[in-house]
């Protein structure tokens, strides 16, 4: 996410603390800080807010935050049953905004197989809002007056990629790119997804799954350079089309 915090707040139709800081990044890895959009009840009114969370959900019962290393994605097919996610999906749903994401496409087979990275992004430069869940974890090693005793973390819901249609659409490209798809939210459905409080989560999960392919149909893919494979590389050149990187 390289969008300015003010632009993110405006597009999410949310508010943010004046002290909120969001470091620009073109190569976000699990356990990094990411922005999330959530809704909370403040004085009996629903308020939409932008926060910064660690990507990799740490459930409230975890002994330490290392659990989050394995929980950056949540499979939508099992999110209601998995102990790590089942509490958050009921009452702590969020949207995770991104300008795009990388996937590696495999070509060939066996020892000659190779992988090429692609940048998946919306046409027109708008943001993708992925369906997510979040959790607050209290560090037992820190005192009550320590401002860092609470850790905010999140996960992105995923589903099976679209089936191949043979019509050379974006969905066909996504089918050939990876077998899993991070679930994007329709803007109208996002309001329902973010609605705070305990509620029946199963219908919400099915709703966002049913609309995901239609939203993803407005995306575009472009091949980018292999430098994205190293998280130490971080700059706007990472999302440049691969042919531009070698142009004179």
Descriptive notes:
This protein has 248 residues and is of the alpha+beta class. The protein has one domain (5-239): Alpha-Beta Complex (hypothetical protein yedk fold), CATH 3.90.1680.10. The protein is built from 6 helices and 10 strands. The protein has helices at residues 5-12, 86-91, 170-177, 187-194, 201-216, 242-245; strands at 33-42, 45-55, 73-75, 93-98, 101-107, 114-122, 128-138, 150-160, 180-182, 219-223. The strands form 2 sheets. Strands 1, 2, 3, 4, 7, 8 and 9 form a 7-stranded mixed β-sheet that branches. Strands 5-6-10 form a 3-stranded antiparallel β-sheet, covered by helices on one side. β5 and β6 form a beta hairpin. The longest helix has 16 residues, at 201-216. The protein starts with a helix and ends with a helix. The mean pLDDT is 91. Belongs to the SOS response-associated peptidase family. InterPro entries: SRAP (IPR003738), SRAP-like (IPR036590). Its EC number is 3.4.-.-. Pfam families: SRAP. GO terms for molecular function: lyase activity; peptidase activity; single-stranded DNA binding.
Brief digest:
With 248 residues, the chain is an alpha+beta fold.
CATH superfamily: SOS response associated peptidase-like
Average of pLDDT: 91
Determine the CATH topology. Answer: hypothetical protein yedk fold
What overall form do the CA principal axes indicate? Answer: globular
Number of strands: 10
Radius of gyration: 19 Å
CATH architecture name: Alpha-Beta Complex
* Range of helix content: 10-25%
| Uncertain regions spanning at least 5 consecutive residues | none
- Strand proportion, as a percent range, falls in 25-35%
Structural domains: how many? 1
Number of helices: 6
String of helices and strands? HEEEHEEEEEHEHHEH
Terminal CA distance reads 28 Å
Q: By helix and strand content, what is the structural category?
A: alpha+beta
Instruction: Give the class-level CATH name.
Output: Alpha Beta
Q: Describe the main β-sheet briefly.
A: 7 strands, mixed
């Amino acid at each position: 996410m390289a969008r300015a915090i003010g632009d993110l707040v405006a597009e999410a139709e949310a508010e943010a603390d004046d002290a909120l800081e969001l470091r620009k990044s073109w190569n976000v890895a699990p356990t990094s800080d990411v922005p999330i959009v959530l809704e909370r009840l403040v004085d009996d009114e629903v308020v939409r807010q932008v926060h910064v969370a660690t990507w990799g959900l740490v459930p409230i019962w975890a002994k330490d935050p290392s659990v989050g290393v394995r929980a950056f994605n949540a499979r939508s097919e099992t999110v209601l049953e998995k102990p790590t996610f089942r509490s958050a999906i009921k009452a702590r749903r969020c949207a995770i905004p991104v300008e795009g994401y990388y996937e590696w496409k495999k070509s060939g087979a066996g020892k000659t197989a190779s992988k090429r990275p692609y940048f998946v992004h919306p046409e027109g430069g708008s943001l993708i809002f992925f369906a997510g869940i979040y959790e607050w974890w209290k560090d037992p090693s820190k005192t009550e007056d320590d401002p860092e005793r609470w850790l905010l973390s999140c996960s992105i819901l995923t589903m099976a990629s679209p089936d191949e249609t043979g019509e050379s659409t974006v969905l066909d490209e996504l089918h050939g790119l990876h077998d899993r798809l991070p679930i994007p939210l329709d803007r109208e459905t996002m309001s329902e997804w973010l609605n705070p409080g305990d509620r029946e989560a199963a219908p919400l999960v099915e709703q966002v799954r049913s609309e995901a392919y239609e939203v993803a149909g407005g995306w575009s893919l472009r091949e980018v350079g292999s430098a994205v494979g190293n998280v130490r590389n971080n700059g706007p050149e990472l999302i440049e089309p691969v042919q531009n990187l070698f142009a004179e």
